[in-house]
Amino acid sequence: MQLSEQELVRRDKLTKLRDLGINPYPADLFPVKQTSKDIKSDFEEGKKVVIAGRLMSRRIQGSASFAELQDSEGRIQVYFNRDEICTGDDKSKYNDVYKKLLDIGDFIGIEGELFTTKVGEKTVMVKDFTLLSKALKPLPLPKTDGEGHTYDEFNDPELRYRQRYADLVVNPHVKDVFVKRTKLFNAMRQFFNDAGYFEVETPVLQPIAGGAAARPFITHHNSLDIPLYMRIANELYLKRLIVGGFDGVYEFSKNFRNEGMDRTHNPEFTAMEIYVAYKDYNWMMDFCEQLLEHCAIAVNGTTKATFGEHEIDFKAPYARVTMADSIKHFTGFDILGKSENEIRQAAKDLGIEVDNTMGKGKLIDEIFGEKCEGNYIQPTFITDYPKEMSPLCKEHRENPELTERFELMVCGKEIANAYSELNDPIDQRERFEHQLELAKKGDDEATATIDYDFLRALEYGMPPTSGMGIGMDRLIMFLTNNQSIQEVLFFPQMKPEKKPLAISDDSKAVLEILTKAEKLELADLKSQSGLSNKKWDKSIKELTKNSLAKVEKTDDGLFVGVV
């Protein structure tokens, strides 16, 4: 591990602290009594306080110093005075420990008294301090020059997501997003509990990847010697509990789908699913809009939220539009009563890319996704989906081509999906078998396995039930005005971090010359490097071996290019 100059200096300070008999990582507790927020809200001149946090800035002026301490609630100004801290002849705690051996980023505990500065700043007069943890790596703090210009901000997304611990320290607004995320979960949980529904847990490792159409992550159980699938959905297990006699169950579940990643998809995501007996999808629409209105107020104090250029209002009620009416409105084509071939031809006429693996449901889904979905900005229920799109959903009571299903659209994205749940075991078996046929034709979104145990459960009888799933990550994106799902996940999935290659200084110099030119004649590059023949040979071999440069033979001679 190659350390920077600052890291080496901090390790040297660590050694000096230990030489002074100071443990840089003490085991005993520090008796924190106040937070920065407590001090500001309940300020009283001369009041004794005990706080702890991270040293974030300081201005040393000889025997006195103003500094900032950051804890979980924010920042507070603290004042170090040599004679207040060192009341006797020995001034080393201030002169040596504070001034020379502490660094920005160190955790310290402070005992002190409150006072107000001449400019009105609420401040802690330090009477004593304790080093609680020495930081060996400098924080990526932004810097401000004399003209007020800020630079070196820690705002590169990849670095921020990979080093979320540093992101949270130096970008306080990031923490606010996750505080709101927790408020959302708490509000939703309270809403369900107040309604009398029961929070449950279902398996993450499942013998069949069921309840949704998605590619699973596969693992192996050594003791049982069987393959297992990480949960893509918890729907079928929650319905089993309705069969077992619960009138209402819900779960916040971590789901895993081995699929693409983009600004709105992460392979590991959080969903909420709720199932309530003796209800239908019309009741669930009412319930959903009341729930989201309650959650928006709990998170932001208002039903309104800004997302990009749009202001969304989660206040109930929401518009309700059938899928057939939506497609007809935006394309002029009526999907009702049409054959698969007619719908395929209509999709082609609309300029939508289709293939022969797509069944009727998939074709309709493509038309809606391409031509309709993005038009719904305010919360809108899209209802009555074609049966082919909804293998777990009850047939519509008025039109056997359709199902009793809705999706809630916000800013062109789906955030909730709900059904009048299919509880006819014979119909369910036929739907599963139809999905198998689609999968055999090559539809990679069709369910390729049948959960026979779930069918057995239905045969014992499941009452009329409505269920709903909400993508929690996507919902908090809308409530906090974040365009990327990575912004609302503490630790989003990332590509492996590229480790810096340990190459010689000579090779680095050659690579720098080459990077500026992108491509140079071999003899010219050697000449510009100024290296001896031995050092040149070693450097060019090192660069090509590590795939940093490549040598190509052309009719015009040998050229070196950056890989």
Beta-strand segment tally: 23
Total helical segments: 18
Approximate shape = globular
Q: Return Rg in Å.
A: 31 Å
CATH superfamily of the largest domain: Bira Bifunctional Protein, Domain 2
CATH fold naming of the largest domain: BirA Bifunctional Protein, domain 2
The largest sheet is: 8 strands, mixed
Q: What's the end-to-end separation, in Å?
A: 25 Å
Kindly estimate the percentage of residues that lie in beta strands according to DSSP. Answer: 15-25%
CATH second-level architecture of the largest domain: 2-Layer Sandwich
Kindly state the mean pLDDT as a whole number?
94
Structural class: alpha+beta
Strand order of the largest sheet: 8-12-13-20-19-18-17-16
| Number of separate structural domains | 3
Question: What is the percent of helical residues?
Answer: 25-40%
| Unreliable sequence segments | none
Just give the CATH class of the largest domain: Alpha Beta
Protein name: Lysine--tRNA ligase
Subunit structure: Homodimer.
Keywords: Aminoacyl-tRNA synthetase, ATP-binding, Cytoplasm, Ligase, Magnesium, Metal-binding, Nucleotide-binding, Protein biosynthesis
Cofactor: Mg(2+)
